[in-house]
Amino acid sequence: MADPTFKTADLYAYLAANVGLSALVSTRIYPINAPTSATMPYIIYQRLNNRSMWHLGSTSSSKLTVESFQFDIFSSTALSCENVSIKLRQALDGYSGLMNGGTNVRRVFLQDVLDSFENPTDATENFIHRIMMTFDFWVIRDVPTY
């Protein structure tokens, strides 16, 4: 039986191998949080939720789940942040297939984008630019049997 959840290792490997995205962030793509020494720009991702889809007239799951992920892009300039967000959208929005040969992704949809910034933590007055993007991944998975 396959892992019943989305394999985030597949997501990381897929993004790190994307030529356009890796040209901007290299492998600085982190789950949950980034090291304090991380060089900008970088991406943080986290799973927000996992929803099983049911179909009418059935008493069992359809094996289709929708998993929402938030991607936070951090950069020292607004332009760099925007460029990374464009490459991330190109890599994910509309994607379908076996992600990194593992997770069966039926389709990925961009749900929303929010621009923000973080105040400087020192006397430099250099703001940290941030773009938050939420994507829904429609994934086929094995359903556990009891």
List the helices and strands and how they pair.
Blueprint: H1 8-17, H2 19-25, E1 29-31, E2 42-54, E3 61-75, H3 78-92, E4 97-99, E5 103-118, E6 128-140
Parallel strand pairs: 1-2
Antiparallel strand pairs: 2-3, 3-6, 4-5, 5-6
Helix pairs in contact: 2-3
Walkthrough of the structure:
The chain has 146 residues and is an alpha+beta fold. The chain has a single domain, classed as STM4215-like, CATH 3.30.2000. It has 3 helices and 6 strands, in the order H-H-E-E-E-H-E-E-E. It has helices spanning 8-17, 19-25, 78-92, and strands at 29-31, 42-54, 61-75, 97-99, 103-118, 128-140. It has a 6-stranded mixed sheet with strand order 1-2-3-6-5-4. The chain is elongated, with a radius of gyration of 17 Å. The mean pLDDT is 87.
Question: In summary, what is this structure?
Answer:
With 146 residues, the chain is of the alpha+beta class. The protein is 22% helix and 43% strand.
Main sheet: strands, sense, barrel: 6 strands, mixed
CATH homologous superfamily identity: Phage tail protein-like
What is the fold-level CATH name, i.e. the topology?
STM4215-like
At CATH's second level, what is the architecture?
A: 2-Layer Sandwich
How many domains make up the coordinates? 1
Largest beta sheet: strand ordering: 1-2-3-6-5-4
Distance between the termini: 13 Å
The Cα radius of gyration reads: 17 Å
Task: List the main descriptive attributes of the protein structure presented here.
146 residues; alpha+beta; STM4215-like; six-stranded mixed beta sheet; 3 helices
